[in-house]
Amino acid sequence: MIAVVVPTIRPQKFREFQSIWRLAFDRPGLFPVTVIDGEKPTVNGYSIKYVMGNDSDLIYNFNDGVRNLGFAYVAKFLPMVDTIISLDDDVAPDGETIQDHLDALEMKVPITWMSTASKYTRGFPYKVREEAEVVLSLGVWKGVADWDAPTQLIKGNEELEFYKGVIPKGCLFPLCAMNFAFKRKLLPYIYQAPMFEGLNRYADIWGGIEAKKDIDREGWAAVTGYASVNHGRASNVFDNLIKESKGMKMNENYGEGEYFKTYKLKRERWTKWVKSQS
Questions:
Q1: What is the DSSP secondary-structure string of the chain?
Q2: R_g over Cα of the chain
Q3: Which of 56, 122, 200, 230 could hold 92 in an S-S bridge, CB 3.0 to 4.6 Å?
Q4: CATH number of 2-276
């Protein structure tokens, strides 16, 4: 069964999202999980306190990391769900987005060898062709690119081409929570990094860094490029420049400083909390 987690703070935009995705969501075993951001965020009508109890401080509002509340709802209330899909409220399906994620998560792939062609060529060992179970599918998008603010100022809305394949073991990548899917076994390790004291727009990126480390440690695999959405809205570049300014240097020196000690502790608590729900 599938849970689709969508955070939103814009009622009209979310109504449009529901209309656009109505047919895609009309399938047996799909559970919509809606996180309403704001002063007192809720998930499917339930408060942070109701879902998280004494661990409510793990959820931060007024940024995209609030989707952690949706992941927590799945962990606590939807034990039958084995696949979680994360979408933003300003994307539309591109083909069979949901099924494409499900198909990607069914694959077994090499993680210590990388094919330089679309098929396995001479010399690629047979024993590693199904080396690892895929537990994370990073989706891509058409339309408005997910630039950082300085790049957006330079590039505008330049069209992107995306890699499709396995993300090799030991290699990090920028996880955009706009469109990705993962198996339930990864849920304890999917924690969007806390954003506070002026930090913003790095919740999914830093959450993805740590998730990929866990994927590598467990001998699992992550793939990218198999499922796509249409992204139709560019956020204000100057607002983003302000939001990203504090985290930009931290991102270049990832792991250094007091913030990352706090992040590590909160992530450890998240992992413990999620595992306690099973």
A1: -EEEEEEES-HHHHHHHHHHTHHHH-STTEEEEEEE-SSS-EETTEEHHHHHGGGGGG---SSGGGGHHHHHHHHHH-TT--EEEEE-TTEEEESSHHHHHHHHHT-EE-SSS--SSSS--TT--GGGTT-EEEEEEEEEEEES----HHHHHHHSS-------EEE-TT------TTEEEEEGGGGGG--PPP--TT--S-HHHHHHHHHHHHHHHHT-EEEEEEEEEEE--PPPHHHHHHHHHHHHHHHHTTT-SHHHHHHHHHHHHHHHHHHHT-
A2: 18
A3: 230
A4: 3.90.550
Report pTM.
0.95
Domains of the chain by residue range: 2-276
Residues in the chain, how many? 278
Task: Dump pLDDT digits (tens) for 174-215.
Answer: 999 999 999 999 999 999 999 999 999 999 999 999 999 999
- Could you read off the pLDDT of 232-259 as tens digits, one per residue? 765 788 888 788 889 899 999 999 999 9
Nearest to 7 by CA among 66, 84, 50, 83: 66
**Measuring CA to CA, how many Å separate 198 from each of 10, 86, 114, 201?**
21, 24, 40, 10
